[in-house]
Amino acid sequence: MKTIGLIGAGHIGSQLARLAIANGYAVVISNSRGPETLAPLVAELGPHARAATPEDAARAGDLVVVTVPLKSYRAVPVAPLAGKIVIDTNNYYPERDGQIPELDNESTTTAELLQAHLPTSKVVKAFNHIQAAQLTTDGQPAGSTNRRGLVIAGDDPGAKATVTHLLDQFGFDTVDAGPLKEGWRIQRDTPGYGPRRTAEELRNDLAAARRYRDS
Ligand SMILES: NC(=O)c1ccc[n+]([C@@H]2O[C@H](COP(=O)([O-])OP(=O)(O)OC[C@H]3O[C@@H](n4cnc5c(N)ncnc54)[C@H](OP(=O)(O)O)[C@@H]3O)[C@@H](O)[C@H]2O)c1
User: Which ranges of the chain does DSSP label H, i.e. alpha helix?
Assistant: First the structure.
């Protein structure tokens, strides 16, 4: 059984934990307040789930999801994630995260910030543009008519193939936006950010996206 480590167990982290368990993975979940605060979620998830520190979740995961408020990304442990695939769900909300100048001037993207923090990890941006509740309601088997698509971006083709397989298991088609630096095409306020879209519709949304400075 493969293990998914989760750093962050809020709206998105808890939902991804549910999907992972439902699809035969073990999960190790973590938050900022300590494993004991996750006892109700662990009880709900069952015997293949446990709570841990972020370091332990990072170490335990064959694949690890970072799903904390963006302002906290520098707290993500670096050493235990070396060489691993790390899924980044994060978005930039200045009212929550404070102003981040390199995102304000669009000289980088949220997932590139995490990649710079985790230089030897293989960061793949995913799950950033779907509401948490829909993660467990919108998935459908491969080949379903009008199956929902989700966008990924990343610099490592092998890591992207693994995440594409995971998305398929979770019930979603994948649209590859390209390298991490193209992740802005699915950032807050772009056409594909939020609504339910098929893969074909998402491809059009990515092409129609405008930089904040151009919109
Ligand atoms: N909500 C959505 O529908 C949605 C959809 C797509 C993407 N996103 C993005 O995904 C990210 C997570 O969103 P969310 O809604 O799941 O947030 P959330 O409900 O506020 O949960 C955040 C989680 O991160 C944990 N955390 C905070 N600082 C941490 C640290 N230093 N180390 C370990 N864990 C830490 C929190 O733990 P404590 O509670 O113990 O502090 C909590 O479990 C954000 O960037 C958000 O923009 C959200």
Answer: 11-22, 39-45, 54-60, 94-97, 101-104, 110-117, 157-170, 199-208
